[in-house]
């Protein structure tokens, strides 16, 4: 059984993961409309992953005797300046998510909830991968700069990039 404090904190994380999913979905839609098919595919996949992160929390809370609450998600922005802005946002958003996961881990230690602490380790590892993936993409964009041909290849490569689980 989880304490009401941990349950509330995990429910806030459901909100953040669900918002992340919608945020990346909004980015994917923008990229698709602008003709960046590969980027769109990458972001649609990333959006699905965030939904999976949310669903894992839903099952965990309910399995441990709590009640997972599905909130109304804040509407993400719909327009972006360019692809670079999108990936800068992805990275800063993932850093924010990592900070929230770390705060949850800290709360579990304070509350002596070692089961939830253990459950959260999956998210700790996932965040390392997600931040590193966003940095890799930004490095590629830095190399390309304003080169249109480079951007064409970037879009193609991103569409072929395997998701990280
Ligand atoms: Fe990328 O945020 Fe989920 O965990």
Explain the overall architecture.
- With 165 residues, the protein is mainly α.
- The chain has one domain (4-160): Ferritin (Up-down Bundle).
- Helix content is 78%, strand content 0%.
- It has helices at residues 4-33, 37-63, 83-110, 114-144, 148-160.
- Helix 1 packs antiparallel against helix 2, helix 2 (37-63) runs parallel beside helix 5 and helix 3 packs antiparallel against helix 4.
- The longest helix is centred in the C-terminal third of the chain and has 31 residues, at 114-144.
- The relative contact order is 0.16.
- The model has no long low-confidence stretch (mean pLDDT 96).
- Bound molecules: hydroxy diiron-OXO moiety.
- Hydroxy diiron-OXO moiety is lined by residues 17, 20, 50, 53, 94, 97, 123, 126-127, 130.
Number of helices: 5
Q: Could you tell me the mean pLDDT?
A: 96
Specify the structural class.
Answer: mainly alpha
Global geometry: elongated
- Domains, number: 1
Instruction: Kindly report the name of the CATH homologous superfamily.
Output: Ferritin, core subunit, four-helix bundle
Poorly predicted ranges: none
Written as H for each helix and E for each strand, in order along the chain, the element string is: HHHHH
The small molecules bound here are:
hydroxy diiron-OXO moiety
Binned, the helix content reads over 70%
Report the biggest beta sheet as strand number plus sense, adding barrel if it closes. none
By CATH, the topology is: Ferritin
Number of strands: 0
Q: Which percent band covers the strand fraction?
A: under 5%
- Please report the first level of CATH classification, the CATH class: Mainly Alpha
User: What is the first-to-last residue Cα distance?
Assistant: 29 Å
Q: What is the CA-based Rg, rounded?
A: 17 Å
């Amino acid at each position: 059984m989880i304490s009401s404090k941990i349950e509330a904190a995990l429910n806030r994380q459901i909100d953040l993961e669900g918002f992340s999913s919608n945020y990346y979905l909004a980015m994917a839609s923008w990229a698709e409309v602008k003709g960046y098919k590969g980027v769109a595919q990458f972001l649609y996949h990333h959006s699905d992953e965030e939904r999976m992160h949310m669903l894992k929390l839903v099952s965990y809370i309910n399995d441990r005797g709590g009640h997972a609450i599905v909130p109304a998600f804040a509407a993400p922005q719909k327009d972006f300046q360019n692809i670079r802005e999108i990936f800068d946002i992805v990275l800063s958003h993932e850093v924010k998510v990592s900070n929230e996961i770390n705060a949850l881990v800290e709360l579990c230690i304070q509350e002596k909830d070692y089961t939830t602490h253990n459950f959260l380790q999956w998210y700790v590892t996932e965040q390392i991968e997600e931040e590193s993936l966003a940095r890799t993409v930004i490095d590629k964009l830095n190399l390309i700069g304003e080169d249109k041909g480079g951007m064409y290849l970037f879009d193609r490569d991103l569409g072929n990039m395997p998701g990280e689980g």
